[in-house]
Design goal:
There is one protein chain. Helices cover about 20% and strands about 30% of the residues. The protein is an alpha/beta fold. It has four domains: about 1-105, no CATH class; about 110-445, Rossmann fold (3-Layer(aba) Sandwich); about 450-555, no CATH class; about 555-628, Macroglobulin (MG2) domain (Immunoglobulin-like), CATH 2.60.40.1930. Helix 6 packs parallel to helix 9 (about 380-395) and helix 7 (about 265-275) packs parallel to helix 8. The longest helix is centred in the N-terminal third of the chain and has 15 residues, at about 1-15. The chain is globular and about 95 Å long. The relative contact order is 0.09. Bound molecules: calcium ion (4 copies).
Length: about 625
């Protein structure tokens, strides 16, 4: 009976060519004896790995051949002798342990092999203002970029160790047990950091499930060179975040398919990148849309990892994963700053970068270790590198900050009309160019600053922290939209900057509000900063003004007492240098006079006190505290 049902089911499928399955998000076609998954209008021939979301791993293992599984409960399962492809799909569909089913396929790396070789140059560097950005930073090795690609030839002397004493490949020091630094099999065969990958000293090959992440195809090496080829080392080319004859940003090589990216392992590689501390995930590939990859992208996003992805090369709509709203999708322009004829565009396009005749690294096994190539594949890594530069000057940027900065600083180039567009809040946008041509210098400058404008802090506690500079007020030039910044009574706002805080006209703190501003380094876990550093707050920019309730307040009256209530030591914080501090009882009796901003109040009787301070310029500042 069951057998007859199955045959009928398969007949139905063959006639309608579409699986009537409820656990799958994909559109599937059957043509000429092959099954295709359709993503963004492109057809991919499915391979022999099915990804499923499961609820019970043991039950899954009992029934199926599990190749790998991950922490998001996705497993890749392979056909076994017990099943045909069709019978397995039907079995999965009726299995209560299975929550979702995805087909997998090999996609493509987004390169175009040019049929002629133009003059060798790094024209893209000036177009994206990389030279100016390098006056601020050339990349910090604490920033890690996972390059999910065809593998990276880390033997290359302009990327790996070569003849230099440094390299721009991330080396996992807990697995630094290779007796020969160029031979992956020379490790101790122990997963020393217990991350599930044995001897993963230089990335991982998810295709071969091995620690040799080099691959055999040039694509990933070429992409990695654009980001992190060693700059100023007298050899080859300059990477955008390639250091200055010293370490630039660190590249983690992850191979996700030798000649074609395999959708079955891309989700696992994304999760590994997140788990192993990547700050940026770089994709220059297109593949089928699977639940497993969408959820892995979501996981990376929730963990604060930016994902940059090439838009694809079909002169059509964005391919996947570029079409996923959580990724920053990058298209390509040519040397005239016009959209490259092949560059995919439209909805979800973020920015563009040069992608025609880009010069970068080739495999060391080739006759020439450098070559020219074109494709959105080589535009996206420029944005990944710029994000790495931004994180080099400010590791505290959120992924929302990163997207805002990349998009709002883009250059409005070409004969295109950029206009205000629904769902595109970070400036004017064009269907073919996104927000425009990415600008490394402007982006790195912005990464150092936080602009606050048209903001009202109504209640609760809010901290804006660890930008080198914070600007607040209506005269902040780079912020949109324009308007006052008001700290309302009952709210508690703290600004912490590592260099300067600029309180511009339009910044108001109302009576009854608490406002703290500190200049401090992130490693200091104390709320009080040294008095000398605090004076860097840019009070000369702060004209006095009145708020709407006529409560006059000088913005340079940054004067606060902490902790409040106090038990032992009371810290007095002030933007201005103080010449004296006097503590009074509520009835006006002075009980202590000092110049020390750390005051021992442990002997004071419990109750409320007034602290009055005189600045060196003669201003009087006053606040209350409670001794408990
Ligand atoms: Ca390991
Ligand atoms: Ca090891
Ligand atoms: Ca070089
Ligand atoms: Ca998988």
């Amino acid at each position: 009976m069951k057998r007859i049902y199955l045959i009928l089911f398969l007949l139905t499928y063959n006639i309608c060519h579409i699986f009537p399955l409820s656990k799958m998000n994909q559109k599937v076609l059957s043509k000429d004896g092959n099954l295709f998954v359709v993503t963004n209008g492109r057809e991919y021939i499915v391979n022999d790995i099915i990804s499923v979301k499961f609820s019970d791993l043991n039950k899954l293992n009992e029934k199926y051949k599990v190749v790998r599984y991950n922490i998001l409960n996705y497993a890749d399962i392979k056909l076994s002798d017990n099943y045909t492809f069709d019978s397995m799909i039907i079995d999965l569909e009726t299995d209560k342990n299975i929550l979702s089913i995805d087909y997998n396929a090999y996609g493509e790396y987004n390169s175009i092999i040019p049929n002629d070789s133009c003059s060798v140059s790094l024209w893209h560097l000036s177009v994206i203002n990389a030279y100016d950005a390098w006056t601020i930073t050339t990349g910090n090795p604490n920033v890690k970029i996972a390059v999910l690609d065809s593998g990276i030839d880390w033997i290359h002397p302009d990327l790996g160790i070569g003849n230099d004493t440094y390299q721009n490949i991330f080396c996992n020091q807990i697995e630094n047990d290779w007796t020969n630094q160029n031979i992956p099999t020379s490790g101790n065969h122990i997963d020393d950091d217990a991350n599930g990958y044995i001897d993963d000293f230089k990335g991982w090959n998810f295709d071969a499930n091995s620690n040799d992440s080099r691959g055999v195809y040039y694509h990933g090496t070429f992409v990695a060179g654009i980001i992190g080829a060693k700059t100023n080392n007298h050899v080859g080319i300059a990477g955008i975040a390639g250091g200055n004859h010293d370490n630039g940003a660190a590249i983690i090589p992850y191979c996700v398919g030798l000649y074609y990216p395999n959708s079955a392992i891309i989700d696992d590689a994304i999760i590994a990148a997140v788990e192993n501390g990547a700050n940026v995930i770089q994709f220059s590939l297109s593949c089928v849309n699977t639940n497993a990859i969408v959820d892995a992208i979501q996981y990376a996003t929730e963990n604060g990892v930016s994902i940059i992805c090439a838009s694809g090369n079909e002169n059509s709509v964005l391919s996947f994963p570029a079409s996923n709203p959580n990724v920053i999708a990058v298209g390509a322009v040519d040397s005239t700053k016009s959209r490259a004829y092949f560059s995919n565009y439209g909805n979800n396009l973020s920015v563009v970068a040069p992608g025609v005749d880009i010069f970068s690294l080739n495999l060391t096994t080739s006759t020439d270790m450098y070559k020219l190539d074109s494709g959105t594949s080589f535009a996206a890594p420029q944005v990944s590198a710029i994000v790495a530069l931004m994180l080099s000057v400010n590791p505290y940027l959120s992924i929302n900050d990163i997207r805002l900065i990349i998009e709002s600083t883009a250059q409005k180039v070409g004969s295109y009309t950029y206009s205000t567009t629904s769902g595109r809040p970070n400036g004017t946008w064009n269907n073919e160019m996104g927000y425009g041509l990415v600008d490394a210098y402007a982006a790195v400058q912005e990464a150092q600053r936080r602009h606050i404008q048209n903001t009202t802090y109504v209640s609760g506690t809010s901290i804006v922290e660890y930008y080198p500079e914070i600007f607040a007020g209506y005269s902040v030039t780079n912020a949109v939209p324009y308007g006052n910044v008001v700290v309302k009574s009952g709210s508690n706002i703290t600004f912490k900057a590592t260099d300067k805080i600029h309180l511009k006209p339009g910044f108001h703190v109302e009576r009854g509000a608490t406002f703290h501003a500190y200049i401090e380094q992130p490693q200091a876990n104390t709320m009080s900063a040294p008095a000398l550093m605090r004076r860097n707050i840019n009070s000369e920019e702060n004209p006095p003004h009145q708020d709407s309730n006529n409560n006059k307040l000088e913005t340079n009256e940054i004067f606060s007492l902490s902790p409040n209530p106090a038990t032992n030591v009371l810290n007095v914080e002030s933007a201005e240098e103080l010449s004296s501090i006097t503590i009074y009882t509520l009835s006006g009796q002075p009980v202590l006079q000092t110049t020390d901003t750390e005051i021992n109040v442990s002997a004071f009787p419990a109750g409320m006190y007034i602290v009055r301070a005189i600045t060196t310029t003669g201003e009087q500042l006053q606040s209350k505290f409670i001794k408990q």
